[in-house]
Specification:
Helices cover 73% and strands 6% of the residues. The chain has a three-stranded antiparallel sheet. The chain has 181 residues and is mostly helical.
């Protein structure tokens, strides 16, 4: 779903921009974490001033921080917790607690080194053959869905043809009986 949102934002970015769409674009398209952090601050102030969205500010900021940290952790192997907390616009103490909570809840394969103040990400890449197998399965599934869609679209015509063929012999029988009588 997020991929679809990113594609849509990319397509309409020349026509429409606001802090929320700019945040998503900075994070998922440009991977510019400094700009994303700045846009997150703007989003927070815009949402606080919006009558309809003022109640969703905390949820939005929490989820935006989660997405920012998740993308940042995917790209970097060793992360300075102080640098990440400043990007997340949090106090260092709150940021450390939040990062530890994030790692626990999202089940990231990471270790927290409190002595050095870093998070060490363990790489967990699928082997190439596993990626090929998954993509092949996905391709087979899409092909089956497309095939069933084509069958559904072509079957109503076949049913109508069968109905018409079934009616023709009856009509022919009626004409034969009428002529015979």
């Amino acid at each position: 779903m997020m991929q679809d949102l990113v594609k849509t934002i990319q397509q309409v970015s020349y026509m429409y921009q606001d802090p929320v769409t700019e945040f998503v674009e900075a994070l998922y398209v440009d991977f510019d974490f400094d700009r994303a952090a700045a846009k997150l601050e703007e989003c927070e102030s815009v949402l606080e001033n919006d009558f309809f969205l003022t109640h969703a500010v905390d949820d939005f900021v929490e989820n935006a921080r989660f997405f920012l940290a998740e993308v940042y952790c995917r790209i970097h192997k060793r992360i300075d917790m102080k640098a990440l907390t400043t990007r997340l616009n949090m106090k260092p103490e709150d940021g450390e607690k939040w990062i530890v909570k994030l790692i626990r809840e999202s089940r990231m394969d990471a270790k927290v080194d409190f002595k050095e103040g870093t998070v060490i990400m363990n790489s967990s890449y699928n082997p190439v053959y596993q990626q090929v197998i998954e993509r092949t399965r996905n391709l087979v599934f899409r092909t089956q869905v497309m095939n069933s869609s084509i069958d559904k679209n072509s079957n109503p015509n076949k049913k109508d043809d069968a109905k018409q063929k079934g009616k023709q012999p009856r009509a022919a029988k009626r004409q034969e009986t009428a002529v015979a009588a």
